[in-house]
Design brief:
The chain is mostly helical. Helix content is about 75%, strand content about 0%. The protein has helices at about 5-15, 15-30, 40-65, 70-90, 95-115, 120-140, 170-190, 195-205, 205-210, 215-240, 245-250, 255-265, 275-295, 305-320, 325-330, and strands at about 150-155, 245. Strands 1-2 form a two-stranded antiparallel sheet.
């Protein structure tokens, strides 16, 4: 597959109106930091970050039909490996991304092999992913080398360095924006590839796909490996943004649930769904957290999850396929096109 040829073909097929809107959105986001304060920059970072991990999870569930509820595992692995290599050995996160991706992909391959080789599917496969995340959380909770339950901290530097992910909100804004754009392009290329078509066939009917000569096991394994690798990259960036890692938060199932809501609400199996879902949920969730904190006089953990649950019920009721398919009809974009 020639990526440049695939991209040009994809652009040629896309409606001109959609390309103009997409180009305008990217241009606005590129210059937005000059008009945003630190708080809004942090909100946009979270939007871009959730859009990125939403794209990664969408490969597994939206493209290939494999439900994972333990994707926080790969965020944690990526974050801890990147942080450890930087703090303990002085290895730049730009380089540490490589081992982070490899380790996360190895964990994803192990989960996939156990699940797909022994026919664990549906909700049982989801439970397997949760089990791996929980076992890893317990392990990190009791591993003194990484700080255990007390957490692992990355020293704050006053010297801005994009390579080392050291800097202020503007730096992380652009890093997350670039990460979201790259994730979108990667998913667009994968969806158009032979592997992408195999994923869609497996999602619709695995037995029919097998009858057509598709290696279902290999297709599923590719989905979990690619998804885990992409998520690990986002995990490295998030760790250096937060400057701290706590196993109880990093590997928590609540983090996994937050990660999958954007593609579900935006539209499973679509390219714009995870992005649109992140732009809807994240700002509203952050506004609700700030509002409740102002009214109650203190932060109330989990209030955003309550809102996400209510939003999910409303979306499922009025737009069961997600917001993007509904919006696509309103924009007059033909079916089968993003």
């Amino acid at each position: 597959m020639n990526p440049l040829a695939s991209l040009s073909h994809l652009a040629a097929e896309a409606p001109r109106r959609a390309l103009l809107l997409l180009g305008l959105m990217v241009a606005v986001l590129a210059v937005a930091p000059v008009m945003l304060d630190r708080y809004l920059l942090s909100v946009f970072f979270l939007i871009f970050w959730f859009a990125t991990v939403g794209q990664a999870w969408n490969i597994m569930m939206g493209f290939c039909g494999q439900l994972s509820l333990g994707h926080a595992l790969y965020v944690g692995l990526g974050g801890y490996i990147g942080a450890l290599l930087w703090v303990k050995f002085g290895i730049s996160p730009a380089i540490a991304i490589v081992p982070a991706v490899l380790v996360a992909a190895a964990f994803g391959a192990a989960i996939g092999w156990l699940g797909f080789r022994f026919g664990i599917e549906g909700v049982y496969f989801a439970l397997l992913t949760i089990a791996f995340a929980e076992v890893t959380r317990i392990g990190f909770d009791n591993w003194s080398f990484v700080g255990g339950a007390a957490g692992f901290f990355i020293p704050v530097s006053q010297v801005a360095s994009p390579i080392n992910l050291r800097g202020g909100p503007v730096l992380f804004y652009y890093v997350a924006l670039a990460m979201m754009v790259v994730a979108f392009v990667v998913c667009a290329l994968l969806r158009r590839s032979k592997l992408g078509h195999a994923w869609l066939a497996v999602r619709e009917d695995a037995e029919a796909a097998r009858a057509l000569g598709i290696d279902v096991f290999r297709a599923k394994m590719a989905a979990v490996i690619v998804s885990s690798a992409m998520t690990a990259v986002a995990g490295v960036v998030y760790a250096f943004y937060q400057n701290n890692l706590f196993p109880s938060q990093t590997f928590d199932i609540a983090r996994s649930i937050e990660m999958i809501l954007a593609p579900i609400i935006g539209g499973l199996g679509t390219l714009f769904g995870p992005i649109l879902g992140a732009f809807i949920l994240t700002p509203l969730g952050q506004m609700l957290i700030a509002l409740v904190e102002k009214i109650a006089g203190r932060a109330i953990p989990g209030v955003n999850l309550v809102f996400y649950g209510a939003a999910l019920m409303v979306i499922i009721w009025y737009a069961p396929n997600g917001v993007w398919p509904w919006l696509k009809k309103k924009l007059g974009i033909p079916e089968g096109r993003e």
